[in-house]
């Protein structure tokens, strides 16, 4: 097992009616900025629950955060937060709203000329407004981590940044908020969660037995729960299990003491930046091709994945890996996901653009930091 430091201070409030707990969780002596997206919270009762819990608080609102949140939109939020002298940010929505809120929190206090430098040049975040989250879409794990991914329309970029100052103070997870999610977003959330786990599990073996078992237990839970959605068994507990899986998949716990490979996300973010495809859909296209390309270097873990997650006991290792990848693709497809670039009518002309960007990264992506432009091209060509 590799050395690690683990720290996660986020208070989780989980369960029915937990939005009412905002009354005590949000400081009363600060002006609050409630941040949300395109209006889903106004149709599913979340907005009313928040307003009622904060009826004695001083609240201003900033809405219109789009999926794959834009720097341009966030900067309007920064302006409002400064003009209104806001002291605490409350995000209500999915990963996009939570990430935008993290960016605004850091940008309001950014001492330099352009807060985009925190994203592009990794300028250090030295201070940030405190923030909390009401999660309505289980997927990204943003509610318990330090990451945010921000896009910039003018340059077709989508780039992650992070800071320990961006841990939410608390996150409220009420599984009932997910009942209004369209099937497409539920599927996106399951695949995003699945891929987050795989990127911390499918690397090379460092004898981290507990971390492997934790990863497998999340994958197995997703595989068990996903088919229940929209069927007769679809109930509160299915939603609760999926929600807790998403949080556990990216709260920095699974990556303790193990190598990680975030290259599916790195390539997926470029696909979204160039082709405006949903985050999880990009991942469903990239990961099977990437695992296939890296199958020899990841063989030990892929065989474990085949045996323990997909119950495959084929003594021929290569065939066992083939079967595991087929099962993974079938799982994604049963959820209605695309698994090929052509499923989304993405043309091959985008491949060299993505390969060029990945090839310029320092360090290169992958657990061995060696995914150069040639390898990225080969992966995406397999995904055609
Ligand atoms: O904007 P509203 O009206 O709220 O509608 C949203 C949006 O259209 C809707 N929605 C959310 N909750 C709903 C709902 N509709 C009905 N009922 C509800 N309860 O769903 C749509 C998608 O929302 P979005 O927040 O974009 O989805 P998701 O949670 O998948 O977030 C994706 C973003 O998170 C980033 C992605 O790159 C992408 O930008 N990620 C952030 C990570 C992190 N911070 O750690 C890690 C992830 O890997 C990911 O990269
Ligand atoms: Zn993701």
Characterization of the model:
With 384 residues, this protein is an alpha/beta fold. It has two domains: 11-177, Rossmann fold (3-Layer(aba) Sandwich), CATH 3.40.50; 183-382, Up-down Bundle (Dehydroquinate synthase-like, alpha domain). It has 15 helices and eight strands. It has helices spanning 22-25, 40-43, 46-53, 71-83, 95-108, 116-120, 183-201, 209-225, 236-249, 263-275, 279-293, 299-309, 317-334, 350-359, 373-382; strands at 11-14, 32-36, 59-62, 88-93, 131-135, 147-152, 157-162, 170-173. Strands 1-8-5-4-2-3 form a six-stranded parallel beta sheet, with helices on one face. It has a two-stranded antiparallel ribbon with strand order 6-7. Strand 6 (147-152) and strand 7 form a beta hairpin. Helix 7 runs antiparallel to helix 8 and helix 11 (279-293) crosses helix 15 (373-382). It is globular. The two termini are 37 Å apart. The model has no long low-confidence stretch (mean pLDDT 97). Bound molecules: 5,6-dihydroxy-NADP and zinc ion. The site of zinc ion has 5 residues, from helix 7.
